[in-house]
Amino acid sequence: VDFTLSWLESPENLTTSVNTNDVTLVWEMPTDNALRASRTTTRKSQPAARNLQTQKENEQPQSDNTRSLTGFKVYRNNLVIEEITNSTTMTFVDEFLNAGNYSYFVTAVYDDVQESAPSNTEEVTVTLAAPSDLQAVVAAPDIDLSWTAPAGNRSLTGYTVYRNNQQIVQVTETTYTDEDLENGVYAYYVKALYGSYESEASNEVIIELTEANNIIIPENTALLGNYPNPFNPTTEISFALKDAKKVNLEIFNVRGQKVKTLVNKSMDAGLHQIVWEGLDDAGKQISSGIYFYKMQAGEYNATRKMIMMK
């Protein structure tokens, strides 16, 4: 980009901040315009006795270089992405970006046509957070997958599940059952979707699906999740046990107070589902809100979140 009118004041002190895949830009008005705005405010507050002197100052011939600030142009990677026609607007949010490196600068526009030299340049890196803690449990001929969502990402729209490096489904929940599989070896990973963009892959899990006397033994002990979530008033919590263990499964509110004990006993290896009808230990219906269910089985501990929505 060739900026020839270098004598026109540029925007100053451009700063950037990244929130997931949004970049917020903030800058300051060119110095001369900021001073001019300050003087205008001061003049409005001057006593009447000084108005004559102010009027005389205003009648002095103006420099040929005097121009009216009418807006700004925002550049990303040397290309204009936004033209702002309000000279008092000094912020812009560049939304829903793909992962990558980006450079930004801003120019001032005078008399709607003339453009200043660029402000300082800001470099940013956008990273799309990936799912984590992918787990797989065999329930032949199916394989149950569960994972943990990236934290605090408003742009998250769903997930893509891959089997043996091939996309098999897109879902919005953090669980998926790959059904009616033949015996064999299967490798899975999951990517988070941010609109039309994908994150890096989660950890990969490899499962060998076999038949052993028609007994289904999970590969791992895992708290798989609950469905539906949000729920009203009933939800089903699923978990897997690789070996027979004593299982403790409890519900807590956001204050950390125990609401309900669902399981506190020894259980066989296998895939288990426990239905919670939304009642506390006293048999009373719980109120709407966020709840946590915690599972302990031997050395395994896990906690997940669910929402009761009326």
Would you write up a description of this structure?
This protein is mainly beta and 310 residues long. It has three domains: 115 residues, Immunoglobulins (Immunoglobulin-like), CATH 2.60.40.10; 89 residues, Immunoglobulin-like; 90 residues, Immunoglobulin-like (Sandwich), CATH 2.60.40.4070. It contains two helices and 23 strands. A hairpin with a 2-residue loop joins strand 3 and strand 4. The two termini are 56 Å apart. The relative contact order is 0.12.
Summarize the helices and strands and which ones pair or pack.
Blueprint (H helix, E strand, L loop, with lengths): L11 E8 L2 E7 L2 H14 L6 H8 L10 E8 L2 E6 L6 E4 L5 E11 L3 E2 L6 E5 L5 E8 L2 E7 L9 E6 L2 E6 L3 E4 L5 E11 L2 E5 L3 E5 L12 E6 L7 E7 L3 E9 L4 E10 L2 E7 L12 E9 L2 E9 L2
Antiparallel strand pairs: 1-2, 2-5, 3-4, 3-6, 6-7, 6-8, 9-10, 10-13, 11-12, 11-14, 14-15, 14-16, 17-18, 18-21, 19-20, 19-22, 22-23
Q: How many discrete domains?
A: 3
Counting helices, strands and paired strands, the structural category is: mainly beta
Give the oligomeric state of the chains in this entry, treating copies of one chain as homo and distinct chains as hetero.
single chain
Tell me, what's the shape?
elongated
Sequence stretches where pLDDT stays below 50 over 5 or more residues:
38-45, 59-64
Content of β-strand: over 45%
* Overall mean pLDDT: 85
Could you give a short account of the major beta sheet? Answer: 5 strands, antiparallel
* Secondary-structure element series: EEHHEEEEEEEEEEEEEEEEEEEEE
The top-level CATH class of the largest domain is: Mainly Beta
How many beta strands in the DSSP annotation? Answer: 23
Helix content: under 10%
By DSSP (H or I, 4+ residues per run), the number of helices equals 2
Q: What is the third-level CATH name, the topology of the largest domain?
A: Immunoglobulin-like
End-to-end Cα distance: 56 Å
CATH architecture of the largest domain: Sandwich
Rg over CA atoms: 30 Å
Q: In CATH, what is the homologous superfamily of the largest domain?
A: Immunoglobulins
